[in-house]
């Protein structure tokens, strides 16, 4: 003990004499550098991104810090070897290498996550515009809202630099987008069905031929193109854009489904102001005998519940105000166009409503684009 004290005293005296002859057991800058390495590893989410490497670093760092605290009063000659300093320098090299690797991995994940999130947002924008173009938003219901939230969630995780969760949210959103495309294809696939389109073309041709033969007016409505065309003597005299029911692109099945019916009808009544809640209306004979036949068959097969009714009061009409700007299954025109149409037809005018008149119709084209294989998210 006495010898130890004498040794330290002599060493201290020699240090004072030599001024630069003694050094601390652990250089302070090395300790600070290791503290910085530890902070860098935490900032780079090393506990999650590299748990094994970080665990080894922490265990060694805790052990070495304890040794530093025990030896912080030691001094040594520059030529004396320090096992503690050597161990700390080795740990610094290991930590610095781990930080470098995590920086590279972080940058790679950032690029990958950014590409996926941006691509996903572009896909959502494309699909949303296509869905709007074919009135498919109501068909998708909550699915569309949930997908939008997933995309926003992926963006939020990315902004928080949580790239793993951003990619997980992006994958879920991508699956949801594919499910939407499948749902729309199942519900609206008839617009791309050649046999159905041929049938609709036949109905329209027969109506136009009737107009020519009888030198009278007739109306053809294409739901896919949302267009009403008035013929006179078999020749087109005007064409107007129309709005349909909130589920207008579907085949009408029962009262309240929001679908616009398809088939051959006739104008049964012309209703002016005061006779309708809308700005003028042409009442149609829905449901006709064919509609009733289909309805009964669907009920017997169980496709339509026993409590459902067939509905009625389908019209071609205008609108007076914003509250009446959404039809429940009718065909709506702007008031100025409705005024012209109203004056150009009479009770008994044939009205044929079809899904589409060409294979290249708006719905078929939108479904084709939605079905295109996309780059994997």
The CATH C-level name of the largest domain is Mainly Beta
**Radius of gyration from the CA trace?**
39 Å
- What proportion of the residues is helical, as a percent range? 55-70%
Helices and strands, in order, run as HEHHHEHHHHHEEEEEHEEHEH
Which stretches of 5+ consecutive residues score pLDDT under 50?
Answer: 1-21
How would you sum up the major sheet? 8 strands, mixed
Please explain how this structure is put together.
By secondary structure, the protein is of the alpha+beta class. The protein folds into three domains: 2-106; 110-190, no CATH class; 195-359, Beta Barrel (L,D-transpeptidase catalytic domain-like), CATH 2.40.440.10. The protein is 56% helix and 12% strand. The chain has helices at 2-18, 28-43, 46-49, 51-70, 83-133, 137-140, 142-159, 163-188, 194-214, 289-301, 335-344, 362-371; strands at residues 23-24, 75-76, 217-222, 227-232, 235-241, 263-271, 281-284, 315-317, 331-332, 350-354. Strands 5-4-3-10-6-7-8-9 form an eight-stranded mixed β-sheet, with helices on both faces. The chain has a two-stranded antiparallel sheet with strand order 1-2. A hairpin with a 2-residue loop joins strand 4 (227-232) and strand 5. Helix 4 runs antiparallel to helix 5 and helix 5 (83-133) runs antiparallel to helix 7. It is rod-shaped, with a radius of gyration of 39 Å. Mean pLDDT is 84; it is low at 1-21.
